[in-house]
Specification:
CATH class: Mainly Alpha
Number of strands: 0
Distance between the termini: 36 Å
Number of helices: 5
Order of helices and strands: HHHHH
Strand content: under 5%
Largest sheet: none
Radius of gyration: 15 Å
CATH superfamily: Winged helix-like DNA-binding domain superfamily/Winged helix DNA-binding domain
Shape: elongated
CATH topology: Arc Repressor Mutant, subunit A
CATH architecture: Orthogonal Bundle
Structural class: mainly alpha
Number of domains: 1
């Protein structure tokens, strides 16, 4: 389930494609951010990816995510927090 959900999220187009119009600066920035996010996401451990995906992206509670992943709730909580910090730190560095 986690891998399938991740595939759906990561394979969405960066921006809506338009046939004849050039990208705006905002669309270009969004596409670059998505590429950076995908690159840094791939560097996270599967444990961190799964926790962040279930809790922050799919809206499961810590308890529900822990049950799905068959790990203690504190493991999910710390994994999601570490993943957030890792991604935020990488993306902030890119945007300076």
């Amino acid at each position: 389930m986690t891998n399938a959900a991740l595939d759906v999220i990561m394979r969405r187009p960066a921006v809506a494609e338009t046939a004849d119009e050039p990208w705006t600066t905002a669309q270009t920035a969004e596409a670059e951010t998505r590429i950076d996010l995908q690159k840094h996401w791939a560097r996270l451990s599967r444990e961190h990816q799964a926790a962040l995906l279930l809790v922050d992206m799919l809206g499961y509670s810590i308890a529900e995510a822990a049950e799905i992943l068959a790990v203690p709730g504190n493991t999910v909580k710390s994994s999601a927090a570490r993943a957030r910090v890792a991604l935020a730190g990488k993306l902030e560095c890119q945007q300076v």
